[in-house]
Amino acid sequence: MTVPRLSGQGNDAAGGSGPDRSAVGPKVFIIGDSTVKNSGPRAGWGQRMHRYLDERVTVVNEANPGESSRTFITENRWARTLAQVSSNDIVLIQFGHNDSHNPARPESTAADGEYRVNLQRYIDETKARGGIPVLVTPPYRRHFDTNGVLLTYIVDRTGHTNDLAPYVAAMKQVAESNRVACVDLFAASGRHLQKLGPGESASLFAPEDTTHFNETGADAMAALVAEGLARALPAAARWISQSREGPVE
Fold first, then answer.
1. How many Å separate Cα 104 from the centre of its chain?
2. Could you report the per-residue pLDDT of 87-121, keeping only the tens digit for each?
3. Pairing relation of β-strands 153-155 and 132-136?
4. Could you say which of 34, 69, 201, 241 is catalytic?
5. 34 noted as active-site residue
6. Please, are residues 44 and 222 in contact by the beta-carbon 8 Å criterion?
7. CA dist., res. 229 & res. 214, Å (int)
8. Which of 21, 127, 150, 190 is the most exposed place for a label (fewest CB within 10 A)?
């Protein structure tokens, strides 16, 4: 299986002559759910982001399994993260998987309602701290139809359709209306999983799991996020690098 790689390193990715080794890198904060941070046989892309960033960049992964755009706020995780953000720090914001759950669940939000409101809050409060908000659309689940076509949804045990597509559309619209960067991990992961197909794509996921990645999958998603970040936020391109070895953190 081929893990996607970036096209350049440091300033070279943006056509420059290389990174200024005397510069101090920003902090990159990451908030999200279990596809961003996990444990055991599972891993999230946030735990592999350091491998695609210059060594002077500090990654602070505050994601937590089970979180939605609502619960990350109500459990006070956002307040604790925000207190650490300083001027020019980057905040990567990815929610959607748990927001798409059955409306009877406490973490669920409506794509065209509270989800948008919560994203707006993350953007506004990050900017108020001098930080740079970057929205990241959620990655695809590994769910194919009988013809091998990747689907945007799964049907849970209650019969509810957990569809990521409305949340992806809402996030893109919020990003556009606020003129903030958006990394479309949904599209990038979809292309990657579809290329691999139902069989080979299983190598990216934890055993008997169609949502949560293993270390290989987390690394592949981190590469896609880094590549998307360099495009969506040109100022960050100087801090994007080729993969460098390191443990899952």
1. 25
2. 999 999 999 999 999 999 999 999 999 999 999 99
3. unpaired
4. 34
5. yes
6. no
7. 22
8. 21
Domains of the chain: 26-239 (3.40.50.1110)
Q: Can you tell me whether residue 73 is helix, strand or coil? A: helix
Q: What angle do CA 56, 139, 187 make, to 5 degrees?
A: 100
For residues 221 and 40, give the distance between their C-alpha atoms in angstroms, rounded to a whole number.
18
Share of the chain above pLDDT 70, in %: 88
Report whether 70 contacts 99 (CB < 8 A): yes
Which pTM value belongs to this model?
0.90
Q: What is the pLDDT of residue 242?
A: 67
Residue 208 is a catalytic residue:
yes
6 pLDDT above the threshold of 90? no
Encoded tokens for 159: 């019969």
Q: Which member of 97, 189, 212, 227 is catalytic?
A: 212
Q: How do beta strands 181-183 and 161-163 pair?
A: unpaired
